[in-house]
């Protein structure tokens, strides 16, 4: 017993040291990235690290801080919830606490240089703290050697690791995933923990819209695991989750007079990012032409439904349907507009099923290929204000074979881990929650084809990776 106890203690110490070293490595990576990329692109306006969606979160955070300073209540600040409501508020809180002035030029929405490293350090600290808690939980489920390799993967796998040194929403989302996962598989849960899981599920949705239906994965898992006894935990966590949802909807209602919870980007995502491509291929025209056709159809809908448009609008110059949103000043009417785009997007897909299926299959394939260098090239490639998308660049083409080899390597180890689960018929409950979680994200986001959206699945695959690697090593040493 003393021998086994010493082995567990040594593995625990090694794993703890690994987590601490990984935290410092993440901090040093952030320092390196900030020193190199906390600058403007060649236009001397666009920030290299904060652009597009990440810029939106920091710009919105700056507006929230200004509203608070003008006397507005924090809980009714902000504007239309275009995408992911929590990140902009985390930025606002960070700005308020550190007294960092986000914008150096309000008129041109120019991001200030400096002052942002602390945000990256905080999110790294949160992630590795959650990882340590997750490690403590899985020690009661797996042998120490398996736990060690699971932690190695979650601490250092580059596809996960580099997001802690970026301003994308992933790092906080990974932390929430780990915490929820740990609490769900934790033994001897009680009512307080069930309530906490529900709250965290609500926050998961606030951090990224992909988490909105994840509660049903947990509910299904509890039904399978607890059978008739699942009523109480499901009721408690559902109450907590609905509480977060109601607070979000009430915030939107107090601010705009409209009760809604889904970010408006989710309503037009299909139309903007998927349906137009299906339409252009089906009609055998280029995407610009199909966008123009759709914009004309959209303008007709706006007129037929008597949507109030800005007097400065010249619809002949509008080439995309979504461009009309800036000319709809009333948020209630913008919501109606987004609902139309949502309906129209699905209408296009149903009218062109063959091309839709082709695009979905292509999306799923591209979605599944890992991209460990995404964060680096998100900074490096776009530092010179290139207008050509990275996916069409020579650098991207050179990386494809490397990414494919890396993906096959990781998936091969994961497959051995899955095989080990089935072969030994162990931890069937854990197998269920992992597979349900992976399938959930795959079905919800796979059609889009963006490799960045696949990364949350790696949180769950880490279990298979750790067990698969031990399985391979055990077979190797036995044969040797």
Report what the structure shows:
This protein is an all-alpha fold. It has 3 domains: 2-37 and 119-258 and 369-479, no CATH class; 52-115, no CATH class; 265-351, no CATH class. Helix content is 69%, strand content 1%. The chain contains 18 helices and 2 strands. The chain has a two-stranded antiparallel sheet. Helix 1 (2-37) packs parallel to helix 5, helix 4 (117-138) packs antiparallel against helix 5 and helix 4 (117-138) packs parallel to helix 7 (170-185). The chain is globular, with a radius of gyration of 24 Å. 35% of the residues are buried. The model has no long low-confidence stretch (mean pLDDT 91).
Topology:
Layout: H1 2-37, H2 52-69, H3 85-98, E1 103-105, E2 110-111, H4 117-138, H5 144-156, H6 158-161, H7 170-185, H8 191-207, H9 214-226, H10 231-256, H11 265-283, H12 287-304, H13 331-351, H14 353-367, H15 374-380, H16 394-424, H17 428-445, H18 456-479
Antiparallel strand pairs: 1-2
Helix pairs in contact: 1-4, 1-5, 2-3, 4-5, 4-7, 5-18, 7-8, 8-10, 9-10, 9-17, 11-12, 11-13, 16-18, 17-18
Keywords for this entry:
480 residues; mainly alpha; 18 helices
Outline:
The chain has helices at 2-37, 52-69, 85-98, 117-138, 144-156, 158-161, 170-185, 191-207, 214-226, 231-256, 265-283, 287-304, 331-351, 353-367, 374-380, 394-424, 428-445, 456-479; strands at residues 103-105, 110-111. The longest helix has 36 residues, at 2-37. The protein has 480 residues and is mainly alpha-helical.
């Amino acid at each position: 017993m003393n021998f086994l106890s010493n082995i567990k203690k040594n593995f625990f110490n090694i794993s703890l040291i690994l987590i601490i070293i990984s935290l410092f490595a993440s901090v040093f990576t952030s320092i390196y990235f900030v020193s190199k990329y906390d600058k403007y692109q060649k236009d001397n306006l666009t920030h290299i690290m904060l652009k597009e969606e990440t810029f939106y979160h920091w710009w919105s955070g700056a507006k929230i801080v200004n509203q608070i300073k003008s006397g507005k209540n924090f809980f009714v600040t902000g504007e239309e919830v275009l995408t992911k409501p929590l990140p902009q508020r985390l930025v606002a809180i960070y700005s308020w606490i550190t007294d960092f002035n986000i914008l150096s030029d309000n008129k041109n929405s120019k991001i200030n240089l400096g002052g942002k490293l602390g945000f990256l350090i905080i999110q790294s600290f949160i992630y590795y703290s959650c990882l340590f808690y997750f490690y403590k939980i899985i020690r009661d489920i797996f042998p120490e050697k398996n736990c060690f390799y699971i932690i190695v993967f979650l601490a250092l796998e580059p596809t996960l690791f580099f997001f802690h040194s970026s301003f994308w929403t992933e790092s906080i989302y990974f932390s929430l995933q780990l915490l929820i996962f740990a609490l769900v598989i934790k033994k001897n849960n009680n009512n307080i923990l069930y309530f906490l899981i529900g709250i965290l599920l609500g926050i998961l949705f606030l951090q990224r819209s992909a988490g909105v239906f994840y509660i049903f994965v947990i509910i299904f898992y509890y039904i399978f695991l607890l059978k008739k006894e699942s009523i109480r935990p499901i009721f408690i966590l559902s109450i907590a989750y609905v509480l977060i949802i109601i607070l979000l909807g009430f915030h939107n209602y107090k601010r705009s007079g409209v009760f809604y919870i889904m970010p408006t980007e989710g309503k037009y995502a299909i139309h903007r990012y998927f349906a137009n491509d299906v339409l252009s291929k089906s009609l055998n025209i280029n995407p610009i032409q199909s966008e123009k056709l759709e914009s004309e159809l959209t303008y007709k809908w706006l007129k037929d439904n008597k949507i109030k448009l800005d007097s400065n609008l010249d619809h002949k110059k509008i080439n995309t349907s979504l461009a009309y949103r800036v000319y709809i000043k009333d948020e209630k009417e913008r919501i109606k507009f987004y609902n139309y785009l949502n309906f129209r997007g699905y209408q296009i897909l149903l009218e062109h099923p063959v091309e839709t299926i082709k695009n979905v299959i292509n999306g799923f394939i591209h979605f599944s290929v890992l991209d460990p260098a995404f964060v680096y090239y998100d900074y490096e490639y776009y530092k010179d204000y290139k207008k050509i998308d990275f996916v069409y660049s020579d650098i991207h083409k050179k990386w494809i074979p490397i990414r494919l080899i890396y993906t096959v390597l990781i998936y091969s180890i994961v497959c051995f881990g899955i095989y080990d689960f089935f072969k030994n018929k162990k931890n069937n409950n854990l197998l269920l929650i992992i597979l349900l979680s992976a399938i959930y994200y795959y079905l919800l986001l796979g059609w889009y084809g963006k490799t960045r959206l696949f990364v949350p699945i790696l949180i769950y695959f880490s279990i298979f990776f750790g067990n698969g690697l031990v399985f391979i090593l055990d077979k190797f040493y036995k044969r040797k």
